[in-house]
Amino acid sequence: MFRVMNCFAVLTIIFSSFFLYHIKSEARRDAALLVTLREDIRKEQEMINVLKAEWSHLDQPRRLQDLAGRYLDLRLLDAHQIIALKDLNEF
Amino acid sequence: MRRKSKSASSRYQGSLGLGEESLNKGRAAVAGKGRLFVIMSVFVLCYAVVGFRLISLVNMPNNFENKVAGIHDALFASRPDIIDRNGAILATDIQTFSLFANPRQMLDPEGVADHLLQLMPTLDEVVLHRDLSSGRAFVFIKRELAPVQKARIHALGIPGLGFLSENRRVYPAGSTASHILGVVGVDHDGLSGIEKHIDEQGGRALRSFGVSHKSKLVSVKLALDLRVQHSLRDELVLALNLYGAKAAAGIILDVRTGEILAMSSLPDFDPNNASQAFQSDRFNRISGGVFEMGSTFKIFTAAMAFDFGVADWESRYDAREPIRVSSFQITDFHPQRRILSFPEVFLHSSNIGAARMALEVGVERHRDFLSRLGLLDKLVTELPESEKPLIPRRWTDLSTMTISFGHGLSVTPLQMVSAVAALVNGGRLIPPTFLKRNSALSSGLGVQVVAPETSEMIRYLLRLNVREGTARKAEVSGYLVGGKTGSAEKNINAVYVEGKLRTSFIGVFPMDDPAYVILTMLDEPQALEETRGYITAGWNAAPLAGRIIRRVAPMLSLMPRDEPPESRVPESVVISF
Q1: What is the rounded distance in angstroms from the CA atom of residue B87 to the CA atom of residue A68?
Q2: Residue B26 forms part of a structural domain
Q3: Which of B108, B340, B341, B434 has its CA 20 to 30 A from that of B239?
């Protein structure tokens, strides 16, 4: 009876210590991965931020107006050129 | 008996001896089992603890990592973005890198210098060579590198070069919305405008306590529409140059919600270059300056007289002779020298008529009415730049007369616009805001300051003034503009200087269902051939407002429409023009 229990206890010790180290090493690896992933995400977000700022720089009405004035033959919209969709029936 | 007792005792002893032996044996077994049990339970307990700790380690989040990431994020997003009502970025933080070197760790400083010069040709060659061969432990080479440049330099793999990352506040729109946004100082703290407002609202406190990375800073959404803001500023710049004015300012406000869609004051500054912002002539003329607004004040005089029931469409005012009060004389700019009807006082912008109208209402009620419209108290908005109105120390009959046509009381143009919005939106005074308001919220906002009938009358007068009065050049076909011009002689060192005007125009569109109020203001516009030598508001501020409305109305999704048939006013009044 005691022998069985001892055997069981020893086996439990062996198994659980193996399990412990396995989990610990896995956790350590995951933690490292997490840190790199977080760092990557942060970098990406920073890059997105920079690109957004750059985009809004390029998308400025002032800049577009300047470019349109230089390259396009567009003129200011006049009120009579606007028509509602429902008034288009006759065409 | 003795023997018996002896045998009994010996038997007893015997049995006792025998019993003691077996009892001892049994006791030892029990004690051994008990000890074993204790030891086993201790072990089991130990394993249970270890097991429990194991499980909790696996399941519990790693707090340390979170803390590190949190610090990073707090550094990274130290100020919230500012966006316009459509989500366009007006201010954001970007990370920049500064390149520094430790020349002592360098094997070949000259070679490093050549490499760096190839990547960054703008660097000063002489200074770079001197710095790198100096033998110091730390020299800054270049600040505010873009991420791409940083990556290239990093790829060189030169020992002794390092990067420091820092945040920089950028304003992609440049000077377009400068006075609203404000500037930040070297420590990233807001010094003016909305930037300062954000700090006052607790953004600053949050930051110093460290923001957890889960509660990311929420962008601040302004009421401003970048396209409208650009159009307004663009037209103001053109007008400033065209009329040779010293300064120009304009604002567009939604009369239904109190939202400020655009506001510009020239000369302005580029918030990316904070040092410009505090030069004295670049102050915000819309909310940070008070002016005698001139004839645009007659809107309030007419509304007041009508609202108190002192005047109606049939009222007549004697404008044949200037009014003399002690040494002071009230004259008309366009003298009609006849008896004017109520709308005619407004259309011909008669000072005499307005003064008589205000006198009939009386000093007390006049002050009370202007106070109700918020013109006598400092207007509080999100912008820290807000100036207190200049009120006469003693409010006499003469004060009431001059204030009736906009002299003797100085208010900010923003107050003016907010009060006019209340007069045309049905009579509700809504506190103006630079932040986006949802329409559900603003429908409950505001206090009724005049009767809806008064509002109706003012709408009619304003529209009539653009159709037939002094503001004809503000007309934009399809958008039913209404408005009032004002040309005030500038008061320089307590003397009104002839020929130096501050002209302004307050317009509302579309007049059949007012949506927006616009104010334009020019400081000392010059006479031009196009203006036939005139410098009054009808020739500069009014057409300027017209040009702005023509540009922005389609952006504000206002459908152009024709004039509705006349119905609101008695036939006789219309005929009298």
Answers
A1: 23
A2: no
A3: B434
Taking the C-alpha atoms of residue A2 and residue A75, their distance in angstroms, rounded to an integer, is: 99
B49 touches chain A (CB under 8 A): no
Q: Which of residues 66-125 of B touch A (CB under 8 A)?
A: 68-69, 72-73, 76, 88-89, 92-95
3-state secondary structure of B506: strand
Length of chain B: 577
Instruction: Out of B58, B65, B172, name the one closest to residue A23 (CB).
Output: B58
Identify how many contiguous H helices and E strands chain B contains and give both numbers: 19, 18
CB B485 within 8 A of CB B470: yes
Q: Is the pLDDT of residue B165 over 90?
A: no
Predicted confidence band of residue B328 (pLDDT cuts 50, 70, 90): confident
Return the minimum-mean-pLDDT range out of B260-274, B379-393, B526-540: B526-540
Q: Residue range B374-396: average pLDDT?
A: 90
Which of B232, B176, B250 is closest to B417 using CA atoms?
B250
Q: What is the pLDDT of residues B266-306, one digit of tens each?
A: 899 999 888 888 888 888 999 989 999 999 999 999 999 99
Q: For the range A23-32, what are the long-range contacts, defined as Cβ-Cβ under 8 Å and sequence gap of 24 or more?
A: A23/B54, A23/B57, A23/B58, A24/B57, A27/B57, A27/B58, A31/B62, A31/B65
Q: Are residues B151 and B187 in the same domain?
A: yes
Residues B244 and B152 occupy one common structural domain: no
Structure tokens at B167: 């945040």
AA identity, residue B547? R
For B335, other C-beta atoms within 10 Å of its C-beta total: 15
> A2 is written with which tokens?
């005691």
Q: In the 3-class helix/strand/coil scheme, how is B367-423 assigned residue by residue?
A: HHHHHHCCCCCCCCCCCCCCCCCECCCCCCHHHHHHHHCCCCCEECHHHHHHHHHHH
* B476 DSSP 8-state letter: -
Tokens, residue B313: 């469409």
Cβ(B150)–Cβ(B97) below 8 Å: yes
Per-residue pLDDT, B210: 45
Residue B230 touches chain A, beta carbons under 8 Å: yes
Residue type, B310: V
* Residue B403 near residue B352 (C-beta atoms within 8 A): no
* Chain-chain contact of B147 with A35 (C-beta, under 8 angstroms): no
**Whether residue B122 is found in the same domain as residue B151:** yes
- Residue B170 in tokens: 């950028």
ipTM of the complex: 0.76
Taking an 8 Å cut-off on Cβ atoms, the answer to whether B174 and A61 are in contact is: no
Give the separation between CA B478 and CA B480, rounded to whole angstroms.
6
* Segments in B257-317 forming alpha helices (H): 298-307
CB atoms within 10 A of CB B338: 10
CATH label of the domain that carries residue B216 = 3.90.1310.10
Q: How far is A83 from chain B (nearest CA, A)?
A: 8
Task: Determine the residue type at B306.
Answer: F
Residues forming beta bridges with residue A36, ordered by sequence position: none
Confidence grade of residue B20 (pLDDT, cut at 50, 70, 90): low
Residues B151 and B247 in one domain: no
The residues on A that touch B, with CB distances below 8 Å, are 2, 5, 9, 12-13, 16, 19-20, 23-24, 27, 31, 34-35, 38, 42, 45-47, 49-50, 52-53, 56-57, 59-62, 65, 76-77, 79-80, 82, 84
> Could you tell me if B258 and B421 are in contact, meaning their C-beta atoms sit under 8 angstroms apart?
yes
Q: Is residue B266 part of a domain?
A: yes
Residues B259 and B184 in one domain: no
